[in-house]
Amino acid sequence: MSGEKPVNISRDHWTISRQIPAALLFAIALQTIAFSYWMGTVSSRVTEVENKVSFRASDPERIAKLEVHINSIKEAILRVEQTLQTKGAQQ
Length: 91
Fold this sequence. Notes:
Number of helices: 2
Radius of gyration: 38 Å
Structural class: mainly alpha
Shape: rod-shaped
Oligomer: single chain
Helix content: over 70%
Number of domains: 2
Largest sheet: none
């Protein structure tokens, strides 16, 4: 013990153990809270996207119905044009 220096432990700040300062524990707790908040917002965004995707699942059926409707409109327009052409040729 004659050559050893006494260990000077500073008691200026509060610690859980001598190696872990309270600021580190506070930072870890703050990051955990921020991460939890971020995960909550991500979860709500994923739920919103899932709702939009499920709503869009019926789109192929709607598109098929619209195509049939458009084709019938095209046929009606062609009939009207043919009628106008035959009446125009008669005059």
